[in-house]
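Practice problem: predict the structure.
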Amino acid sequence: MKDGIYSRDHACELARSLARLMTTGALAIATISTLPQAKAQQENGATPPALSIPAMPALRTDTAPTFDIKIIASITSDYNFRGYTLSDHKPSISTNFEATYNIFFAAVNAASVHVPMVSQLQMTDYAGIRPVFGPLTVETGVAYYSYPGSSIDISYPEYYVAPSYAPSPKLMVSVNAYYAPNYSRTGAWENYDSIAAKYTFDSGLAILGELGRQSFGTTNATATATAQKLPDYTYWNMGFSYIYKALTFDLRYVATTLSKQSCFLITGTGQVTAGSNGCNPAVVATLSWNTTPSDLKRTLAGFR
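Answer:
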């Protein structure tokens, strides 16, 4: 990949993405008065860029309204994705607007990141279906990841299917499979498979965990780099969450089997000889605010 400077096309792309986010937010606010009550890519230097897919919203097992909008705002101590940091071990903020119509959903997510040679705004657009069959929910969709304003174009789509099963109201088990045919436009395929579980107590406290395997293909050769097989690795996390009204606090321990040298190949941070500390085990704390226009309307009515 070649380095570059911000061009007019990049600036226009950033403006369009920000306008899209503002439009979505305006739609959510406007819906409050009309609706009835009622989820880094990092430049790799001489090697291909790293994966940068934000976590998808939690799967739902209840029957969704005919039409609704979900709003999520979060702050995290470290934007850690599948075991490595996308925010240079610094706090990150994000917003997510999701619209649902029966089994269909579409959303836009914006998050702050700090990665080499990439803009500090990560945009994710995704859409799909989320049918519910009793205790079984099967979410299938496609996500498109981009960094508006970056000097290089490493945007790409990823397809996924994530069925979840709730044998009881307190227990949720999910199996997730993600696939990108042209990861970060490097020519390499990418695949992530995992199994996750969550148990929620009556108090609102939940324990949760995930075990996954991240695999990559071989990148295309370029003028500055030879074709290279990106390292595969195992990722896991465990912790707990607590829900209080519209707030959710999540605390997790995350780790991978990546060495410092392998981490450097994926993240592009650190040094060739010393490797990277971006994939070291970490404790990540996240505070999220979740609401819908109908919830906001009821809350505002309570202040009258």
